[in-house]
Specification:
This protein has 117 residues and is mainly β. The chain contains one helix and five strands; from the N terminus they run βββαββ. 6% of the residues lie in helices and 23% in strands. The strands form two sheets. The protein has a three-stranded antiparallel sheet, with no helix packed on it. Strands 1-2 form a two-stranded antiparallel ribbon.
């Protein structure tokens, strides 16, 4: 079992998840860390996703090193953020089935995922 907390940037790489969504997101791209910044605009446009995999300011997030096989992953948003963004427990987690089918560093990608919510 792997239990890992990681940071997320809602203004990071994302993609349209619905054909009726806007062609582009109106929100800025990227999350910076500047000690002189007084505020920032964050947003996740309806019909868009945000890449949540191992975002960090140094780009050092590491994937899980898994042997070939079938896995189940449950991804959950911490309660403090659920409360802040005012969304319910049902929308706070998703469980997916994953299959590791090729070497972990294959540039074509290896994971096939199916949403089981």
């Amino acid at each position: 079992m792997l239990d890992r907390d990681q940071t997320v940037c809602l203004n990071g790489e994302g993609s349209r998840t619905r054909p009726d969504a806007l062609d582009t997101s109106p929100y800025p791209d990227g999350c910076s860390a500047n000690p002189f910044t007084l505020g920032a605009v964050w947003g996740l446009q309806a019909g868009w996703s945000a890449n949540t995999f191992s975002y960090d300011y140094n780009g050092t997030g590491q994937p899980a090193d898994l042997p070939a096989g079938k896995y189940q992953a449950k991804i959950t948003v911490n309660k403090a953020y659920r409360d802040f963004f005012k969304f319910g427990a049902y929308d706070a987690s998703v469980t997916i089935q994953e299959s590791e089918e090729c070497p972990p560093h294959d540039v074509r990608g290896c994971l096939a995922a199916k949403n089981t919510r």
